[in-house]
Structures
1.
Amino acid sequence: MSTKVRTRRAVVGLASALLLMMVSACAKEDAESRPEPRGNTPPAVVHGSHDPAHGGIISMTADLHFETVLHSAGRHEVHFSDGARQPLPASTLAAVSMTLERPGAQQERLDLDPDARGAFWVAEGRPLGKVPVTKVVVTFNRPGEVPTSFPIAVPDHGHHEH
């Protein structure tokens, strides 16, 4: 290979490397110079896990997650969290109720109250017993909003104490 060809290849290689570095620098500069979102743009939130923190069933609506926990002794709970699964105090909601459905039995409607610490909502109902709960309808509303109901199918995997 001639010296002229080697020189030409070296120049082309050097020019390519220089061009690549310039493009990278411009892209980085563009990203750094972009203004932060302002006004009504909501901040990006990392979405949290859907693993139950209290052994219950996770459901969600918009930016609100709720975990329905049915204890075999009849104590039932609803825990609320934000989109990143950070716990929300009971005061985030104005009212919470649940209706439990069992095959061949009358529906059981419970109005829940905040627990003593104000961390979640709780009610005492009938023990779960041998007739399984097949569906729970959780109804709640934030202050000033209309109540909304969420039907939840309960998996058939037996009951256990939490």
2.
Amino acid sequence: MSQARISIGSSSGYSAFEPGGGGWMNRPLRMPARRANRPISSLEAFELFEGIEEADRLAFERDCVWRDWKKGSTIIGRDSLGGLVYFVVAGRCRVTLRAGRRDVVLDEIGPGEMVGEISAIDGERRSAAVTASTATRTAEVGADRFMAFLLRHPPAALIVMRRLAQVIRQADAAILELSGLNAPARICVELMRRARVGGGLPPNAAQISPLPKHADIAMRAATTRETVVRTLSDLVQRGLLRRDTDRFVLPDVEALIRLTTTADEPSPGGTIDDGK
């Protein structure tokens, strides 16, 4: 199997394994301040508004529509028209693309992040669907108001440009994984995305807590739940995965990384089902 270079860091903002000069490190999620017993109705914590005069931010907030979404609600429909930009102030959302007969998770976004800016900029149909993974609160604003704000505040426009570059890199990584890695390798990559250091484990070990659902891993890896079950079982047999009461433990992260480039090769106890 040809070896493909892959990125296993998370681009969605939450802590994840990513290579650094001193080994593996955690990247923190940037969270907006919460007010007790009150729904969040401010965009102050968003990076887009750093350095912006309070009066300008408050004027922008007044032009927003604040909505609360139930878990499972469709916030943005795939191929839909509309230039609204959504700022996630509470909860989590899942961004999915259609790949053949399956939905593939492109990103998961949370408080302090926005979605929908691409269609607001180019006026085209939505390329992805966005659903609420949990109860979610958003602030939505029209494309004209959003673009006027960016034109008035070049530093904010630069932030959006960087965000769009991130989206392109995400899409490139997803295409590379789907075309260059088989299902077991993609599952390994997804496990590493979810992995965290700590928990009393040695430096080359990691944990995934709480235990992820097989269906969630399958959607992220663009495969079936059955393939996830088989692959996890194979990893247990290889000594690369251990299930505790409330977590997965990855005893040897480096070995798991190497496995992503050799997933087509026979294992000592048989083969990993490709499950493409």
3.
Amino acid sequence: MAARNVAYREEIFAPVLNVVCVDSLEEAIQFVNASPYGNGTAIFTSSGAAARKYQKEIDVGQVGINVPIPVPLPFFSFTGSRGSLRGDLHFYGKQGVAFYTQTKTITSNWQFHAASAQAASSMPTLK
């Protein structure tokens, strides 16, 4: 999908799958952030560092990591960003209390066999 595509230029609420192929993580972040809308996006990766960078730098309300864009359960508020918000009040949930807070829902799925090393849990010491 290119930036000139109607699905990129307009906010479509329908069962539409937009697939974008880019050359780098930075290009993906720029592509998503350049859109006037910010409902949701997903990234599929085996790199925890890439996932963390993506979720931190992307300006959307819902981020899927190794899962499609999550549809929020009732106890999560529906989150959006930029042109995806209408008015000064949000839909429901905690957003009704803190409607000036920009929130982001992150959903991720990591396979245990993908870990190449076990996390260190000891206190580093100077020797």
